[in-house]
Design a protein that fits this description.
0% of the residues lie in helices and 48% in strands. The protein has 110 residues and is mainly β. It has a six-stranded antiparallel sheet, with no helix packed on it. It has a three-stranded antiparallel sheet with strand order 9-10-11, with no helix packed on it. It has a two-stranded antiparallel ribbon with strand order 4-5. Strand 7 and strand 8 form a beta hairpin. The model has no long low-confidence stretch (mean pLDDT 90).
Length: 110
């Protein structure tokens, strides 16, 4: 199934603790139906001291968000996505709000 968001897309969080925040998709995990958005849903992890790292540390990294809780942003507002096949055989994602083309998914193979 084609996902409505891709790596590099600007998205807005539509549900959860981070609702309303905007960020860029860093990674899409289609099997788990999750995405990682840069700077959103940060989690901290305490790392024990080791020989390589005698101080120990606290690491902050982004945690995944379910793909249904993000939407692409067009003109600062969230939008749904339609998939259209063009006359030349290419498949594109089109924003419902405004009709802007979000990106070519598949071009025609010669």
């Amino acid at each position: 199934m084609a996902a409505h968001v891709r790596k590099g897309d600007e998205v807005i969080i539509t549900a959860g603790d981070h609702k309303g925040k905007v960020g860029e998709v860093a990674r899409v995990m289609p099997r788990q139906q999750k995405v990682i958005v840069k700077g959103i849903n940060l989690r901290t992890k305490h790392v024990k001291p080791t020989r390589a790292n005698p101080q120990g540390s606290i690491i902050t990294k982004e945690a995944p968000i379910h793909i249904s809780n993000v939407s692409p942003v067009v003109d600062g507002k969230p939008t749904r996505v339609r998939f259209e096949t063009r006359d030349d055989g290419s498949k594109v994602r089109v924003a419902v709000r405004g009709g802007k083309v979000l990106g070519v998914l598949r071009s025609k193979r010669d």
